[in-house]
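Narrative summary of target 7.
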Amino acid sequence: MSNTPLTPGVVPGRLAASALAENFSDIAPPLDRHEAQVAADRCYFCYDAPCTVACPTSIDIPLFIRQIATGTAEAAGRTILSQNILGGMCARVCPTETLCEEVCVRETAEGKPVEIGRLQRFATDVVMAKGGHPFARAAATGKRIAVVGAGPAGLSCAHRLAMLGHDVVLFDGRPKAGGLNEFGIAAYKAVEGFAQAEVDWLLHIGGIEVETGKRLGRDLTLEALKAEFDAVFLGIGLAGVNALRAEGEGRAQVRDAVDFIADLRQTADLGALAVGRDVVVIGGGMTAVDAAVQSKLLGAETVTIVYRRGADRMGASGYERELAASKGVRILTNATPIRVHGGDTVESVEFAYTEDGPGGLTLSSETFRLKADQVFKAIGQKLDGAPEALKIEGGKIATDAAGRTSVAGVWAGGDCALGGDDLTVTAVAQGRDAALDIHAALVG
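Modeled conformation, tokenized:
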């Protein structure tokens, strides 16, 4: 990464276009055919494989790796996509180090797992590069289903319903489909517009009509949807952002990290995106790491993540924390913001040290300040705009194991639903499973 100019303030163009292009290139370049075969040869093809058990979408991992090893990568791709239609994106963004690869037998024995994620990307890329679509629709059922939210859960649900012969109208409040994959993932994880290319490819199944700019509670009501459609699936995500509850957080240049990431993902010119010289990110999850790393890659001189609990409680995986450190991001733990200092804009953030004991989090009287001209809040999102008729538990839509809500004819999945865990792969599994239950409810 190029040296950062010492320009003060929050400004665009900190780095040259060539440096930005290098910084935001693919973080994990794809395997070529030979590399994929070598990687596949390391698999033991375990019976009752722990990697398959650990995968939220239950992909038959030994089978698809064997298919790669025998030179049938397209068949491997179909094996993956039959369980996870967003397998291409999941191969890029899944925390495989805490899922399938963590329980790999070779990880246990040697400390080096089979590269399941990279092999999954290789196989799904082969299928997508071929064009067309690997699955065909069943005979038309005459049923119409509304899917609200075109993120991973909604896309997965819509695709499976279309495959089963239903007609689907997919609504989303944003100007394009994709949800978290399009607006909330670090740019270096899904380069060259992959998220939107995957959506376009998925829609080739047919039977899915997309209506953007339609948000539940603003343009749509649950009552109207229930009256017009045979079933409704809600995959509306978590649109609200938690407040810091720190004095002065309303100052200019205190932003929601999710908005910053969305702006970065949608800009056509990274050099036009303003970033601070001294950036502080508050939070401990994947969004915090994505915002921090990308700030550094845009040219920020100092970037610090501050988390209120210990490192062992951070939502970001060890791999993600190591990635942040490798890019020059500092991580401070056991501290919480109490005051944002400055005039019209930010000058520094004051933190209190914390202790996480049996009685919960307690604040010390000892404080410290971090110089900052830009602050990103990444302390979690909350459900916003859910219909009052739905039962809410733990701040999310209550559902049963099949995704059925408290309202007849309405299902939910993904981050907005109880059991959603802020992972693309989990959202895909919940959308797929809800679609199967909707199908069973409508046609028996």
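The CA atoms of residues 59 and 83 lie 6 Å apart.
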